């Protein structure tokens, strides 16, 4: 069974951010991720994670405008300076939090020039931080209209073109199902590039239980394929977070 992390941007939102770490640990998670941690001091977040005994698994590069703007800058031609500035900030946070991965968000763009920009920015980032693990994540355009990276072939092509050992795929099973309609077949195609997994029920993006994705089968497949990374719960709870954690394997509880 994989190791499970809680996405604290989406889970335990009944509590202030710094209190979510302990709640996640009490519920049985052993890791945590935060999409955009930038409005809280990294040392406070780090202290909360350490005192709860949680490993920080992932943060995202900062978007230019979380309140309605495009998510990320990496594929936007002409946005290279802004991307580099954002990436330096993400790097400082990731180092302070000892976060395993930085998800580099592509932003809203299209076409060959955007692809070339994405590749060049990722190559710059991989060279700037060769020790860091960087991820890119296909995101469905129903949830995020216009997002550049909404296709697994494109993601594999970009990873191949960058050719840096630090760059891999973030496989969000919810997005995979929304994009391709077959999460297991998509996993089989891309598994050797995956270094981080996220989960949610589909449709609806709630608890990973009922719906189109058979999660017990998916987790068994991860085990069978020797996936050694984290699986993050990234969904909107239907009610209280605690009330919807029946899917979390008991093994997580000490
Ligand atoms: O799946 C998602 O939406 C996230 O993993 C993300 O990074 C978007 O901000
Ligand atoms: Mg995701």
Key terms:
single chain, TIM Barrel, 37% helix, globular, 254 residues, binds the ligand O=C(O)[C@@H](O)C(=O)CO, binds magnesium ion, eight-stranded parallel barrel, alpha/beta
Write a structural description:
This protein is of the alpha/beta class. The protein has one domain (3-248): Divalent-metal-dependent TIM barrel enzymes (TIM Barrel). Helix content is 37%, strand content 15%. It has eight helices and eight strands. The chain has helices spanning 17-27, 42-52, 80-97, 112-128, 152-162, 173-180, 183-190, 215-224; strands spanning 3-7, 31-34, 55-60, 101-103, 133-136, 167-172, 194-199, 230-233. The chain has an eight-stranded parallel β-barrel, surrounded by six helices. Helix 2 (42-52) links the parallel strand 2 (31-34) and strand 3 (55-60). Helix 1 (17-27) runs parallel beside helix 2 and helix 4 crosses helix 5. It starts with a strand and ends in a 21-residue tail after the last strand. Bound molecules: the ligand O=C(O)[C@@H](O)C(=O)CO and magnesium ion (MG). Keywords: Isomerase. Pfam families: AP_endonuc_2 (PF01261).
Describe the secondary-structure layout:
Elements: E1 3-7, H1 17-27, E2 31-34, H2 42-52, E3 55-60, H3 80-97, E4 101-103, H4 112-128, E5 133-136, H5 152-162, E6 167-172, H6 173-180, H7 183-190, E7 194-199, H8 215-224, E8 230-233
Parallel strand pairs: 1-2, 1-8, 2-3, 3-4, 4-5, 5-6, 6-7, 7-8
Helix pairs in contact: 1-2, 3-4, 4-5
The structure holds the ligand O=C(O)[C@@H](O)C(=O)CO and magnesium ion (MG).
The site of magnesium ion has 4 residues, from loops.
